[in-house]
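Quick sanity check, Alpha-catulin:
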Amino acid sequence: QITTLINHKDKPKRSDKTLQAIQRVGQAVNLAVGRFVTVGEAIANENHELKEEMSVACIEARRAGETIAQLTDVASLDHPESDSHITIFTDKTGVVKAARLLLSSVTKVLVLADRIVIKQIITSRNKVLATMEQLEKVSSFQEFVQIFSQFGNEMVEFAHLTGDRQNDLKDEKKKARMAASRAVLEKCTMMLLTASKTCLRHPDCESARINKDGVFHRMRLALEQVIEIVTDSRPNGENEMAPISIYSGIKEFKNKVEGLRENLYFLSKENLSTMLEVILEHTEDFTDSAYTSHEHREHILELSKQAKMELEQLVSVWMQAQNQKTKDLMEDLEVAILKTCQCMNELKREVHSAATTLAADLLKYHTDHMVLKALKITGVEGNLEAVAEYTCKLSEQKEQLVEMCRLLRHVSGTEPLEITCIHAEDTFQVTGPQIISAAETLALHPSSKIAKENLEVFCEAWESQLSDMSLLLREINDVFEGRRGEKRVYLSLPRPGKHNANLKALKPVKLDTEEQAKIAKLGLELHLLTSDVDSETEKWEDQENEIVQHGQGMSSMAYSMYLFTRGEGLLKTTQDLFHQAEIFATEGTKLASALHALSDQVHDDDKPLLLLEAEKLISMCKQLQITAKASAQGKSATFTKVDACILKTRNVMTLLCQLLPLCCKLLRKNKVGNGCLKPAPPWKEDRIRAGINARTPERRVDTLGIKTLENHVTNMTFLESK
């Protein structure tokens, strides 16, 4: 709006329409500033240490907004240039000054608000650390229960704050590091609970103490990393040294080589030689690895040798071209460039094949978790000798998986995936010894239920990481094959371009921040409706019932659409959202068919109502499908289509909330099937757990295990009341 005002053209004749438009823009700017400043002033009142600075910035912004409104108050003037009243036409520089002051003061408010958010995260972290210190020192179970309950609440608060911050980060590398740290905190919370309980139950057990200390240490490191990311700092002023991967090295090397076409003098031959040496040094991670096949090793060595020869030839022609720029020499240089780049591409392909083949084989081999199962069995038997034997096997498995992560990092293709590989490597390095200490504790105390539960928790973390590696491997392959952005885990979503011939002409886009803000309320309503539907489906005893399954599927898809409105989740572009809306509508139509089938089994009195609701559902789903398939050209039209899809999805979910209890009531009344409602679970945490399990993997990772953390807190509160 400000740009519109600044760039308007001074014309001798100005129509009433132009004058009114300028006045509207000026008023809109002033109103927007007023709303913005109101929020800033509220923040200032809650944070006294920054109140003065924030208040000054807010006053400046308000003054600038009012000035713009006054200068654009031109609609009522027939001849504004002859009037004594100063306007945008008589003093355009005044508008420019006011706009600059406005942008400057708005930036100040944003920076100050950001400082407050950072302070909130640091304060929350400090609370968590202080409570962790108390937890480490407790000596009675009753005291532990009370403190852990407080700790759980503090972790939930920290999870919310850091989750919002992660979503706001623009740097994909920082976002990946934050996600990794928060994943550690989520998993370690449950580990801390069981490890601490085991230590309290067996205070003289050295392996139990080692197990607990490892969890506390890892949580502290993760908390520290979150603060480093949030404050953009390193301890003792260190610079973060990111390890260079083969992929990034080859990419940079090729860019330099291809740059010779434009400029023969922009770098030295020593620079190119050094870059190649670094890449070839990293290939030694593959050739020296005991897990690389003989065939891959031989091919990598051959290509490394060839790369050196191609570079020598390139340098020779390059040096000649610098002295004598003839047509023949330039053609020779082009050939040398092409041959060098082709050799590097082949090397990249070979290391990718070596890493991904190893990863696929290892993940397949370890999918049965035989070593973990054996450790649990021998631990319960108290067979120390057998436990020692299987811990050796687990250590070997750990080394294999760590090596796999190191090699995958070299071929991951993007910085966020590199960070995910590093996080996976750390997880295997730390979790392996923790499983061993937990198994030793169980073997020493085979009748201890808490020691058994503790081992289960650490084994689950290991299995979970192996499962994550399968997804990571798939993503790495997607990047290599150029499928980045077409994630295969779109719930039931088809890939763009595969099922709709018109999609190739459309350019997929994301919602910008302003559009997300406009649609936020609608998204929140959708979120609440998914919770209501989940609550209804959880009440059904027969979870295999077709109606329940369709309802759960629709709820999961609606939830992914809600995440899209926040700029999160697997739906990355508007085109993804439209695909999801189509599949959601199809699922709704299938549900309507199930309702028709149910109507044949209920009494005649109930049939009309059920059929009426089914027809309503079919009609709404058809409307949604039409909207999702309609073409939309341009930013405004695309956003209108997004808004319509979310709105119609919300309407379907509202109807679904009414349908599920109605079907349940009719089933109970007519005694159809295996029953409808299951008995209420004895404690709240069972319901929470059921709610989590009913959701998709995408849904479980919405925030840092907030549901899981709340589950821990509920569990401890129940124990305390006992």
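Posting the structure with no commentary besides this: The mean pLDDT is 82.
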